[in-house]
Write a structure and sequence with these properties.
Blueprint: H1 16-48, H2 52-80, H3 83-107, H4 110-138, H5 144-169, H6 175-194, H7 213-224, H8 228-258, H9 263-288, H10 297-314, H11 329-333, H12 336-366, H13 372-399, H14 404-433
Helix pairs in contact: 1-2, 1-4, 1-5, 1-6, 2-4, 2-7, 2-8, 2-13, 3-4, 3-6, 4-13, 5-9, 5-12, 7-13, 8-9, 8-12, 8-13, 8-14, 9-12, 10-12, 10-14
C-alpha cells in the first residue's frame, strides 16, 4: 500500500484553509493562556495573596468547563447548519472575546482574565465538533491518518509557538501592550483564513435546537455509549487529554518551585512537550502507511507511563534554599539531570502523538456522517470531563501535601493501568473486525 505524502494536502483548498484556521485559533488560545498563567505565577498571584499552584489549576478547569457545558449544543448546531459558515461565526466571536482580553491584561485583573479564559473555552467548544466533523467531508478515507496527523502537528506546533511567545513576551517592559495587540490580530487572521474553507452540505437542516443543556448532553452521550467501536476510542482520547492537561498545567510551578528555574525554563518545558506531540503525530502516517489502525496505541500508553515514572525519579531534588536566584535556560541546560527532565518530557509527548492520531482517525472512519458531529461532541464532553477531573484531582493532591513530582508518579501508575485496558480493548476489536 502506497503511503500518502501528507504534505501534499497543503496544496489543496480542501485542507489548507481549515489547517490555518485551526492553527491560528490554537495559537491564540495558548498565547493568551501562557501569557495569563505566567503573569499570574510570576507577578499577580503574590500581589493578590493567592497560591499560584492552586490558581493555575483553577485556570485549567475554567478553560475546560465550557467544553462540558456546550459541546452537546455545538454538535447539534454543526449538524443543522453549513459548517464552513459556522467556523466563520466562531472566529468572529473570538475577535470579540479577545477585545475583552485586552482590558483584562491592561487592568491586570485576575477575575476578569479568568472570565475571558472561560469565554475562550466556549468559542473553542463550538469550533471542535465542526472542525473534526468537516474533515472527513473534505478528505478521502485514505487521507484521514495524514490529515489528522497534520492537524495534531499543527495544533501542538501552535501550542509551542503560542506558549513561547506568550510566556516570553508578557513580563517584558511592554509585554502587556504587545500581547493585547497580538491576540486581536491573530483572531482576525483566523477569521480571514476561515473564509476560504470550502462549503459543505448541512447534515440535518430540519433539526430542532434545544436550550436544555443537561438533557442534550445526556442525549448526545447516550447515543454514542452503546457504539463501542467509537466510544472506546473516545475514552482513549480523553485519557490522553487528562495526561496532557496534568503535565501542561504543572510546568510553570514545577519550574519555579521544584527546580528553581525562571519562566523561560517553564516555557521550554511546554515547548518540548508540544514538539514531541507534533513529531509523534507526524510519525503516525509513516508507521501506519495510511492504514487506520490502533495497534500502536497501547504501546504508546506504556511508553508514556514509563517516561512519567522516570521523570518522577529525576525530579527528586533537595528543597530550594531561600534567596537563591532562579536558573535561566543556559544554567538549566548545563546539568545532565535537567537534560534528563527534557528527555522524559520528549518521550512522553512523542508517544502521546503516536497514541492520539489513530484514535481520531478510527472515530472518523467508523461514525456515520449523520452522527459524526454528535460523536465529536461526545468526545469533547468526555475530554472536558477528564480534564476537569485532572484539575480537581491535582488540586486535591496538592492540598493533601503531594509534591508535583509525586503527581507525575501518580500519572505513571494510572497510565500503565490504562494501557492494560486499552490493549485488551484493541485485541477485542481486532478479533471482531479481523484487523483494526
Amino acid at each position: 500500500m502506497q503511503t500518502l505524502n501528507q504534505f501534499s494536502l497543503f496544496r489543496s483548498r480542501r485542507f489548507l484553509p481549515l489547517f490555518l484556521t485551526q492553527f491560528l485559533g490554537a495559537f491564540n488560545d495558548n498565547f493568551y493562556k501562557s501569557a495569563m498563567v505566567i503573569l499570574i505565577t510570576y507577578r499577580l498571584a503574590d500581589i493578590a495573596g493567592y497560591d499560584s499552584r492552586i490558581l493555575v489549576n483553577v485556570a485549567g478547569g475554567i478553560f475546560i468547563l465550557p467544553f462540558f457545558l456546550f459541546s452537546a449544543s455545538a454538535g447539534q448546531i454543526a449538524d443543522k447548519y453549513e459548517r464552513s459558515i459556522l467556523i466563520q461565526f466562531v472566529k468572529i466571536a473570538e475577535i470579540v472575546v479577545m477585545s475583552g482580553a485586552v482590558l483584562g491584561f491592561w487592568l491586570e485583573n485576575i477575575p476578569l482574565l479568568m472570565i475571558i479564559l472561560f469565554l475562550m473555552g466556549a468559542q473553542s467548544a463550538f469550533f471542535g465538533p465542526v472542525k473534526y466533523s468537516i474533515l472527513p467531508q473534505h478528505l478521502n478515507k485514505d487521507e484521514l491518518i495524514a490529515g489528522n496527523g497534520l492537524i495534531q502537528m499543527g495544533t501542538f506546533l501552535s501550542i509551542l509557538t503560542g506558549t513561547i511567545f506568550g510566556g516570553l513576551t508578557v513580563l517584558t517592559a511592554r509585554g502587556v501592550r504587545i500581547v493585547s495587540f497580538l491576540v486581536i490580530g491573530i483572531a482576525a487572521a483566523g477569521w480571514y483564513a476561515s473564509r476560504y474553507i470550502p462549503k459543505t452540505k448541512p447534515i440535518d437542516p430540519g433539526l430542532k435546537l434545544s436550550a436544555n443543556i443537561a438533557r442534550d448532553t445526556a442525549k448526545i452521550v447516550g447515543g454514542v455509549v452503546p457504539h463501542k467501536d467509537t466510544f472506546l476510542p473516545i475514552l482513549g482520547i480523553s485519557w490522553f487529554w487528562l495526561i496532557g492537561a496534568t503535565f501542561l498545567s504543572q510546568f510553570p510551578t514545577y519550574a519555579k518551585l521544584v527546580l528553581g528555574a525562571d519562566e523561560q525554563v517553564a516555557t521550554l518545558f511546554l515547548a518540548t512537550f508540544s514538539v514531541g506531540i507534533g513529531l509523534g503525530s507526524m510519525a503516525c502516517n509513516s508507521f501506519l502507511k495510511g492504514k487506520i489502525s490502533g495497534r500502536y496505541v497501547p504501546w504508546a500508553a506504556a511508553v508514556m507511563s514509563a517516561a512519567s515514572a522516570i521523570l518522577y525519579l529525576v525530579s527528586r531534588r533537595s528543597p530550594l534554599m531561600p534567596g537563591i536566584p532562579e536558573m535561566d535556560i543556559l544554567s538549566f541546560l548545563s546539568s545532565w539531570q535537567n537534560l534528563s527532565v527534557l528527555a522524559c518530557l520528549l518521550a512522553i509527548s512523542f508517544a502521546g502523538g503516536l497514541y492520539i492520531v489513530p484514535l481520531y482517525a478510527i472515530i472518523q472512519s467508523r461514525a456515520d456522517e449523520s452522527r459524526m458531529a454528535g460523536v465529536i461532541a461526545c468526545s469533547n464532553i468526555s475530554d472536558s470531563l477528564f480534564m476537569v477531573i485532572s484539575a480537581v484531582g491535582t488540586s486535591i493532591l496538592l492540598a493533601l501535601g503531594f509534591s508535583i513530582p509525586d503527581i507525575f508518579l501518580v500519572m505513571a501508575v494510572l497510565t500503565v493501568i490504562a494501557a492494560f485496558f486499552i490493549r485488551k480493548a484493541v485485541r477485542e476489536q481486532m478479533k471482531q473486525r479481523g484487523a483494526l
